[in-house]
Structure formats: C-alpha cells, structure tokens
Amino acid sequence: MTPITLEAMAEIVPDGALVALPPDNSLPSVALARALVRRGAKGLRLLGVPVSGFATDLLIGAGCVAEVETSAVSLGEAGFAPRFAAALKAGAITVRDATCPAIHTMLQAAEKGVPFMPLRGIIGSDILANRPDWTVIQNPFAEAEDRIVLLPARSPDVAAIHGAMADEEGNIWVGRRRELATLAHASQRVLATVERLHEGNMLEDERLAPGCISATYVEAIAVAERGAWPVALLDLYGFDAAHVAEYARMAKTEAGFREYLDRYVFAERAQAAA
Predict the structure, then answer these.
(1) Which one of 57, 113, 221, 251 has the lowest number of neighbouring Cβ atoms within 10 Å?
(2) For residue 174, what is the domain's CATH number?
(3) pLDDT digits (tens, 9 = 90+) for 43-53
(4) Whole-prediction pTM value?
(5) How far is 117 from 229, CA to CA, in rounded Å?
(6) pLDDT-derived band of residue 24, with 50, 70 and 90 as boundaries?
(7) Domain range holding 73?
(8) 3-class secondary structure, 238
(9) 147 within some domain
(10) By C-alpha distance, which of 136, 129, 130 is closest to 151?
C-alpha cells in the first residue's frame, strides 16, 4: 500500500461523517485531527471509543463537530476539555451520553455483523432516559423476570488511528491495543497514520503479527512522525503533560484557542509548503 499525505487523507473524510477516535491512551490520530481542522471539516459526528480526549476537544473548538457520542470528554490531569464545555454550554453540539461498556458492545455487534447485542449494568441508571435507541426487554430465555438492554450495532464511517508502523502490504502495528482491532472490524474504513514504514509483511513475523491490524481493514496510511502527540504512543514517547496543560490554559477562551491553532495547527501547513 502506497502512503498518502495527511492532507489527502483528510480529504477522504466527508463532512458529516461518523468518525471514531480512540482515547488518549490508545492511539488516536491527532495528526489527522489537525489535518481535518486545516481542511475546515464540518458537521462531523465523533464517537469516543470509549472516552474522548485531546483530539476531540481540538476538533470541537475548530467548529468541525456537530455531535459527540462518548462516555466522557477529558484532558486527564489537565482537567476538563475547555472547548467541549464551551460548545455544550452554547448549544453548539449535540451530546449522546454512553458508557464505556455500551460503546464497546455496539462496536462488537457491528464487528460480528449482528443488528444488536445485549448488555447488563445499565438498568437502574438515568442514562436510559436519554437513549431512546437503547431498548429494554425481558430475557427470552429466563423463566423469572430478567430485564436486559439491547444496544444497536454502531459502525463508524471512519476510524482514525495512529500506529507505530505500517508495512508494505498496509498492515498496521498497534501492539497490545487489541481493542483497536474491534474498532477496525466494525468501521466502514480505517485511516491510519504511522510513525514509520516497515519492510516486508508483518503478518509473516510471529513476533509482530499478534499486534497487527490487517491491511484488509485499512483504506489508507500516511506517515506522520509523532502523529499521536501530544498524547502518548506505546513505549515510543510519553504523554506531553506540559503541552496539554498549555493547551488547556489557552483554550479557556476563544481568542486563546485561535492563537493555539495558529501556533500549533496551521503552522504545520506553512512548514509543509516551505
């Protein structure tokens, strides 16, 4: 598979698409999120798998997002996600509340090709009042009363992930983050940025194959060094707490957020053109 540029990858994502992003500790493509901001993407529906972090707040602040479905939006130790909070208060986005197990269950249903899957642990919470698409039924195999929730399959239009490397066939190495395999199987297309390219076929290497997402599920790859930054990438680099704290301070105001974009997002376009 021949790599494409980040900007070309951003063009693949249509406005209004349901875009799935892993959490900050599980290989989201922040590089693709920045490229979508530069493209001026609109109306995106973001799915946190299962929680949302830095890339989600960045896209919301840039006006790229219409809806967020997630179990939480947070910058971790840096605190609340400021642009998410501002957009929610202003009524600029729709939020679909979920739980971590619910999101994984909906993806697993799509992965298995079934229309829904059951889940326990939600009954008794107030989240059901806000999710009319989640249905409570009587367990048909139980003799006594046994209510259970049915969750519809969720198949994202795009999964935006960042791997350590991609090989010549287009296989992506994500290490122990096997939840990304479920995401890849459930999604209509996978767009993957990677740190580097690897010679040969990783699926033929017994040591590397268990950590791979097969090229069967990958539509395009782009090389983006430090493409998960400022969040961590496996053992290659850690979470840049100082930068995320700087972002959190700047993004408290619209003016500060725009300054952040000029300094750290749109500057990449200028550097690429130089």
Answers:
(1) 113
(2) 3.40.1080.10
(3) 999 999 999 99
(4) 0.95
(5) 35
(6) very high
(7) 6-98+155-273
(8) coil
(9) no
(10) 136
